[in-house]
Amino acid sequence: MNRPPRRRPGRPADADGAITRQRIIDAAVLCFAARGFAEATNRAIARQAGVTSALLYHYFDSKAALYRAALSDVTTALIGAYHQACLDAPEASSAVQLSLGLEKVIELSRRRPGLIRFASASTSEIARNHDLDWLDESEGTAFPRFFRRLLLRARQRRELAPTLDIEAAVRVLQACIAGLGSSYDSLRDEREFATVLRTFQRLLTGDFFSAPRVGAPGRKRPGRPAPIN
Q1: Could you give the CA distance from residue 66 to residue 20 in angstroms, rounded to a whole number?
Q2: What is the pTM of this model?
Q3: Which pLDDT tens digit goes with each residue over 173-223?
Q4: Is residue 32 part of a domain?
Q5: Residue 202 and residue 209: Cα distance in Å, rounded?
Q6: Count of domains for the chain
Q7: If DSSP codes are grouped into helix, strand and coil, which group holds residue 83?
Q8: Which of 17, 91, 204, 217 has its CA 20 to 30 A from that of 169?
């Protein structure tokens, strides 16, 4: 009788290297989002991933290396959502493309719990923990490069005010997106986060403020009183 081949200790049944590595990264995102870098342990991350600590160290030689890999993975996923929105609607206005990207971020936050909380906390985590390194330069500048391309496209299509400063607009978009991510912790759930993002979409597409109605009653401008006959 032929016996099935023995598995190496600690190796999961679906032991394809890329799949196992991604499972560890997904577990790390959840644990770092819930407890922060300092409090999360490799043992807890391994348990969340369903692997042994020894196998985790086969892929990542330290907790800092795992954090950097998780951050790179999350950044790639987020910027990929915006790129995919542009590919899905190549003729849409740049504001609409950005809004569609936000919709894909909403979908991503539902598929990968903890992702938004992890991403929004990353800057402060890196500032607090000196053994963390920032992303590779190409990844760390991914969002500014995307926003810059989007705004240059908008200028070519005459969707921007002629005097708008592109670099200042890039910084404004970065600040807005970062602020939206940071607001995640103050919200009840992904549904409320989606509502906040869709309200920001209305701001982008000009549907935030209503235009005043022509002839609508308003406050009278101050002036001299009418003469008394």
Answers
A1: 13
A2: 0.78
A3: 999 988 888 888 788 778 898 899 999 999 988 899 987 776 655 555 555
A4: no
A5: 9
A6: 1
A7: helix
A8: 91
Q: Which string of b and e fits 53-87 if b means at least 16 CB within 10 Å?
A: eebbebbbeebeebbbbbbebbbebbbebbeebbe
With a cut of 50, list the residues of the chain below it in pLDDT. Answer: 1, 4-7, 9, 12-14
- Written as six digits, the tokens of 20 are 């196992």
d(CA 59, CA 140): 23
| 52/44 Cα distance (integer angstroms) | 10
Query: What CATH number does the domain containing 79 carry?
Result: 1.10.357
Cβ-contact 53, 46 below 8 angstroms: yes
User: Any idea what the Cα angle at residue 216 is, between residues 211 and 220, rounded to 5°?
Assistant: 110
Residue 167 lies in domain: 70-204
Torsion sign across C-alpha atoms 182, 183, 185, 189: negative
Side-chain half-sphere CA neighbours of 118 within 13 A: 28
Is residue 22 one of the residues assigned to a domain?
no
Euclidean distance between CA atoms 72 and 135, whole angstroms: 6
